[in-house]
Design brief:
Blueprint (H helix, E strand, L loop, with lengths): L44 H21 L2 H17 L4 H13 L3 H14 L4 H20 L8 H17 L4 H13 L3 H14 L4 H13 L3 H9 L8 H13 L3 H14 L4 H13 L3 H14 L4 H13 L3 H14 L4 H13 L3 H14 L9 H20 L3 H14 L1 H17 L3 H14 L4 H13 L3 H10 L7 H14 L3 H11 L6 H17 L3 H14 L4 H14 L3 H14 L4 H14 L2 H14 L4 H13 L3 H17 L7 H31 L1
Helix pairs in contact: 1-2, 2-3, 3-4, 3-5, 4-5, 5-6, 6-7, 7-8, 7-9, 8-9, 9-10, 9-11, 10-11, 11-12, 12-13, 13-14, 14-15, 15-16, 15-17, 16-17, 17-18, 17-19, 18-19, 19-20, 19-21, 20-21, 21-22, 22-23, 23-24, 23-25, 24-25, 25-26, 25-27, 26-27, 27-28, 28-29, 29-30, 29-31, 30-31, 31-32, ...
Pfam family, one: TPR_2
Protein name: Tetratricopeptide repeat protein
Keywords: Repeat, TPR repeat
Length: 701
């Protein structure tokens, strides 16, 4: 909290010519000082008044012209006045105040302290000292390298303002300043007491309410802060109050109330861009995209060069599915701020969504280079930024089946260490798995565990790979060795359940989930457990039970994309409830438009609905992003067959069979493979007949 003193005089030196000059118009000439009067026993009030008046005149001139020599003359006039009336505390206070405002702090302190020695109840002297200490605290907080306030200076300021409050108890300003000083000292009870004393003097004071609300908020009692501000009648609230109320509601996760408060603040102060920006952000957070876009358009008009506003507009356009418009907007933002990490990230993301992979790679490589240091040394923030771009670049390489490029990129994440390394190892494993390079995936897991022998998550990753490659006993033994009888066992039991389910050990999978249940205490934990139960029920073909579990997940987290997708796909594939399925899957794709599995689900439900154009569009996108998934190729083959393109269908089914052959055994359902094989053979027979007919016709011609 900045506690600033009063504004002082300019400290620039006035020119000192060698010869006398005529004063400028409106400027008083500086005359030689008269000799000091002889000491008298009685005060010469007339002389004191004259010199005090001259001191005030020079003070005004110092303020108007910024000349230091006028400050010096004002000081001399005060001293002459004090010589004429030595007992005047008002003159001494005036001199101390002049010293303070002109930056002569040591002399100000000495003068004020001398006054206080003579009269401890000299209010003006205490105020001078108080303001000096406040200025010092304010300078500490405004310094380029901010440090904690000097505790000794805080105590000195508090001591002065306690005295000031005792001498002037009905001043709201004094109580507020003392309360703010207690806030700096982290003495909340004393701060609150002073603010409430100020409130008793002036109940409707905006400053009093704002200081109390800030105190409650800083102490973590956001509800009390909001209640205090909301208790002020709406018609009596200022824009500042409404803004603070909106911020409190925002932190309390009450978006509708936050929006209403920010809207009132903007209505009262339409030119306040801070209120407009806060309102726009709150609307965006509440998914009111059109209303948020309207506010950001106002901000863009007010400051067309603000790249951050363009970033937000692009985000809204992306969330509305207007990807080309979003790309155009984000490129404008990058043109205004080429080094913006956010704009670079979003441009790459949009290019990826649009399937312009090579361009996305180019952008992400630029951002990786921008966050690179030749010496390999990075701050924590730099590591976080660099890891984001490396992870996105690796993901695009992965989608493009550029396995070696993806692995090289993820290796750079591993070099960052810590959690970034863990994500890098996971990226390498996923890349190798999707490329059907299972031995390499297992080798990476072993390397990761060797480098991080105490990391539970990496050991679970290795356990999964071991079980997937036929070493079930070794994988389960490794997973079970991690159980400690603590809440951390929840994730281990979930992993064990997934391993058992992939091997169709249904009972063992269910038992593992039952053991995980007592450790699922948070909403997120419960949602994860319910999802696993739904997935297991679906694999066991208990579709009604699976649907119940999935709905329970969505009750907790309506935007859980994987649950929305899995529920929608199950309804599309196993029931005739295509309209319900479409609703869930479209929401999943809106949340994650680059997810190949979700695009496949969307294409499949459109296929089931007989809407073949969007079906083909989404299935083709899915194939581009998950080209090694046999199910996606099977679906696209079905679409081609349905639309009379048998040769294209056969090509997709053939790829599907090839990908099944390269897949891990746990990922292959022999019955599904047999279905695809049958369709492929039927297509080949039909194509052979067609070719025979065409060949016979050619011979006749």
């Amino acid at each position: 909290m900045a506690l600033a003193g009063r504004v002082g005089y300019a400290q620039t030196e006035a020119p000192t010519p060698a010869t006398a000059r005529q004063p400028a118009e409106g400027e008083v000439s500086v005359q030689p000082l008269p000799a000091k009067p002889a000491a008298t026993t009685l005060p010469d009030r007339a002389s004191a008044y004259y010199h005090a008046a001259m001191a005030h005149t020079y003070e005004e001139m110092a303020t108007n012209y910024g000349r230091q020599d006028y400050v010096t003359r004002a000081v001399e006039e005060y001293k002459l006045a004090m010589d004429a009336d030595p007992g005047s505390s008002e003159l001494a206070s005036g001199l101390a105040e002049l010293y303070f405002r002109s930056g002569r702090i040591r002399e100000a302190i000495e003068t004020a302290q001398e006054l206080i020695k003579k009269d401890d109840n000299n209010l003006e002297a205490h105020k001078v000292l108080g303001r000096i200490y406040l200025r010092s605290l304010g300078q500490d907080q405004n310094a380029a390298t901010q440090t904690a306030p000097n505790p000794q200076m805080v105590d000195l300021a508090i001591a002065e303002y306690k005295k000031i409050v005792s001498l002037e108890p009905n001043s709201v300003e004094n109580h507020l300043l003392l309360g703010q000083l207690y806030t700096v000292k982290h003495d909340s009870p004393e701060a609150e007491a002073e603010f409430k004393k100020a409130q008793s003097i002036e109940p409707a004071s905006e400053d009093v309410v704002m200081n109390l609300a800030r105190l409650y908020a800083e102490n973590g009692d956001l509800q009390r802060s909001a209640d205090l501000l909301a208790a002020v009648p709406v018609d009596d609230r200022s824009p500042r109050m409404e803004f603070a109320l909106g911020a409190a509601y925002e932190q309390l996760k009450q978006p509708k109330n936050a929006i209403a408060a920010y809207q009132r603040a903007e209505d009262m102060a339409p030119q306040n861009v801070d209120a407009t920006r806060a309102l726009a952000q709150a609307l965006l957070a509440d998914n009111q995209l059109d209303a948020a876009l309207k506010q950001y358009a106002i901000l863009e008009k007010a400051d067309p060069e603000d790249a951050n506003t363009l970033n937000r507009i692009s985000e809204i356009q992306r969330r509305q599915g207007k990807y080309s418009d979003a790309l155009e907007t984000i490129r404008k933002a990058r043109a205004k701020d080429p080094n913006s990490l956010e704009a670079g990230y979003n441009e790459g993301l949009l290019l990826d969504v649009l399937g312009r992979y090579d361009e996305a790679i180019t952008v992400y490589k630029q951002m990786v280079d921008l966050t690179s240091h030749a010496n390999g040394a990075y701050t924590t923030e730099e590591k976080a930024n660099r890891s984001v771009f490396l992870e996105r670049l690796g993901a695009v390489y992965h989608e493009e089946n550029k396995t070696s490029d993806a692995i090289a990129t993820y290796q750079k994440m591993i070099e960052l260490g810590g959690d970034y390394a863990k994500r890098g190892y996971q990226g390498e494993v996923d890349t190798y798995r999707d490329a059907k390079m299972f031995d390499q995936a297992t080798a990476v897991c072993r390397q990761a565990v060797a480098a991080n022998p105490n990391d539970r998550d990496l050991k679970l990753l290795l356990a999964w790979e071991l079980a997937d490659t036929g070493k079930l006993d070794e994988g389960l033994a490794l997973a079970n060795s991690l159980l400690k009888g603590t809440s951390a066992d929840r994730d281990i039991y979930l992993q064990i359940s997934q391993i058992q389910a992939r091997l169709h050990h249904w009972k063992d999978a269910e038992e593992a989930l039952d053991k995980a249940a007592p450790f699922a205490t948070t909403k997120e934990d419960k949602a994860n457990l319910l999802f696993q139960k739904g997935s297991l029920a679906e694999q066991e073909k208990h579709y009604d039970q699976a649907e119940q579990y999935f709905h329970q997940v969505l009750d907790i987290d309506p935007n859980n994309a994987i649950t929305l997708n899995n529920l929608g796909y199950m309804l599309a594939d196993k029931t005739a409830r295509y309209t319900d399925a479409l609703k869930y899957i479209r929401k999943a794709v809106d949340l994650e438009p680059m997810n190949g599995a979700y695009l496949d689900s969307l294409g499949w439900v459109y296929f089931k609905l007989g809407d073949y154009e969007p079906a083909e569009d989404n299935l083709r996108k899915a194939v581009e992003r998950t080209s090694t998934d046999p199910t996606v190729h099977d679906h696209l083959g079905d679409l081609y067959e349905k639309t009379g393109r048998i040769r294209l269908a056969a090509a997709q089914w053939e790829i599907s069979i090839q990908e099944f052959a390269k897949s891990a055994s746990a990922d292959v359902d022999p019955a599904e493979v047999a279905k695809v094989q049958k369709k492929l053979e039927g297509a080949r027979t039909r194509l052979a007949k067609q070719d025979s007919v065409i060949g016979g016709a050619d011979k006749q011609r």
